[in-house]
Request: fold
Amino acid sequence: EMLERVGLTGWGEARPRELSGGMKQRVGLARALAVEPSILLMDEPFSGLDPLIRRQMRLELVELQKGVHKTIVFITHDLDEAVTVGDRIAIMRDGEIIQMGTPQDIVMRPVDDFVREFTLGVQKTKVLHAASVASKPEIIVKDSDTIESLRSLLDGSDSAYAICVEDQGYFKGLIRRETVDGIKPSEKKPLRDYFDQSVEVIPSDTILEDLLPTLIDSDHPVPVIDKKNRCIGVATRRDVLRVIASESDD
Reply:
């Protein structure tokens, strides 16, 4: 079972010399998991691997952790690696923890010059979440509102769309200006009948690197929702480009 979890199905009878470096690391991980520890300590486990295999192992470890639900203490001198695999990061100097927090906390709010210098090379798009760039939509309507009230809001705005929510803020859809322009005054359907509920939404904890492809393919700002499906704002290409531009300034 453990070999299957670490991607080594069918290799149970193989000898060490028949395994690649990455496969040997998987064997070590399978052995550690087999005894069902409550905490797993990994001391620079991927440092001897080539860059391509190392990146692959990082991602596999993240996926594996989601399945086994174990606390993993991962020691590394590579902050990019820490950002990839860690929910929380502790920065140590001279044997003492000088800052501990989420990757976003560490990169965006360093406590001193040492941490600031240590994080300079980290790409913010790998750390920041969609929630950090989400802005309030210019027009928000509720599913109980009328077409007439939405027309009035659009007439006083340059926005090409409106975000539609329920009374508690739960995301219901998006309605475009051209859709509203095409509704005849004689039509008496409720506003909710015109919502586009097929638009792609992004969870608030999505990192910007994963958000970019959705923004590129979208003809409108992308709604950002929390774990309760409440719309906390929208993300735009401009918002993400601003973050990327700030990295160039740094």
About this structure: The chain has eleven helices and ten strands.
